[in-house]
Amino acid sequence: MQAFDKLTSTFMVLPVENIDTDQIIPARFLKQTHREGLGDALFYDWRYHPDGSRVDHVLNQRSGQADQILVAARNFGCGSSREHAVWALQGYGFRVVISPSIGDIFKSNALKNGLLPIEVTQGFYERIRAQEVGVLFVDLERQEVKLASGEIERFAIDPFARLCLLQGVDQLGYLLGMDDAISRFERRAQ
Asked: Which of 2, 27, 130, 153 is deepest in the core (most CB within 10 A)?
C-alpha cells in the first residue's frame, strides 16, 4: 500500500446523490478475487452501452487524466459491503473520495485498502463544485482539505486508520511491523 501524506490533484465531480456500491462496481464484476482490471469496470453501467460502446460520461471523457480525487454528492458508497468498489476506484486512479456523507461500510473498506474517504460539510462540497480552478490540496497529517482559493476545511478520521495510511500499511502490515516487540513481550511473559 502506498503511504499517504499530502496530495495536490485535479478532481472529478459526480454530482449524484446516493451512489451505491452496485453502481460503483456492478455485481457481475465481483467474481474475481484480485484488483487487476477493476478500474475498467468502475461505474460500468453508467459508462457503457449494453453492446460495450462508450457512453458520453465524464468518466470516459476524463479517462487518462491525472484526477486522483473524486468529489461526489451526499451518501456516496451506500449499499452492500463490496471491497471491489474501493479497488475499482483505485484502479481508475483515485486516491481520495470527498463527499458530504459516505457509507460506513464503504468508508471502512476504503481506509483498510488505502483509499482516503473524506466527509466535508454540504457548504464546503458546494464550494468545491463552484471552483474555477479544479485543484484540491489534501493534507492527511493536518487532516485538512484546501481549495485553490485558500479556504480550508478540517476532516475527521479514525486515528489508527490515519496512522496506517501515513505509514502505507494495512492493519496486518502494521501488526507484522510490530513482530520484534511482540516477540520480546512473549519472551518476558513466559
From this structure: 153
Q: What separation in angstroms does the CA of 173 have from each of 7, 70, 71, 125, 140?
A: 23, 27, 29, 33, 19
For residue range 129-171, list pLDDT tens digits in order: 998 778 999 999 999 999 999 999 999 999 999 999 999 998 8
Architecture of domain 6-189: Alpha-Beta Barrel (3.20)
Tell me the C-alpha distance between 42 and 24, whole Å.
Answer: 6
Would you state the pLDDT for residue 35?
A: 82
Mean pLDDT value of segment 81-107:
95
Q: Where are the alpha helices (DSSP H) in 62-136?
A: 83-92, 104-113, 122-130
Q: What are phi and psi of 98, to 5 degrees?
A: -120, 130
Residue 146 pairs in a beta bridge with 137, 152
Cα gap 143→186, rounded to integer Å: 36
Contact 12, 129 (CB under 8 A): no
Strand order in the sheet with 144-147: 116-119, 96-99, 69-72, 6-14, 135-139, 144-147, 152-154
Rounded to 5°, the CA angle 126-128-134 comes to 145
